[in-house]
Prior knowledge:
The chain has 125 residues and is α/β, with parallel strands linked by helices.
Amino acid sequence: MRSKQPPLDIVPPSGIFVRTPDLDVFYIKGGKAYGITEIHLRSWDAPVFPITRTALLNIPVEGKLGFRDGTLVKDFADGKMYLISDSKRRQITNPETFEALGGKKRLRTVPSEYLNIHPEGEHLD
């Protein structure tokens, strides 16, 4: 049986995901914290390190982090499909483009509220 990893009790280094005791998750980058939901976090497929709340006290929360670039997502509400690219959602309007990007095997279906964190970009034909 593996032992539980002790939480970081120092200012975390840049480039990692951390989870507080009350289960908030943040991405640390350049001395700033960006909140991220569990749905968005799954697209990053990265380790998440436990951290104490006090270790985050002097790190400003700057905003939210969405899906990782390259993620294929489908809007649960309207069925539109998007590629996340440069942090924007780019609607895929051509079935051949959709298949070339990985098709259904890479697709994640999510509620609109999780897509709307990304501004709309140019369509992919």
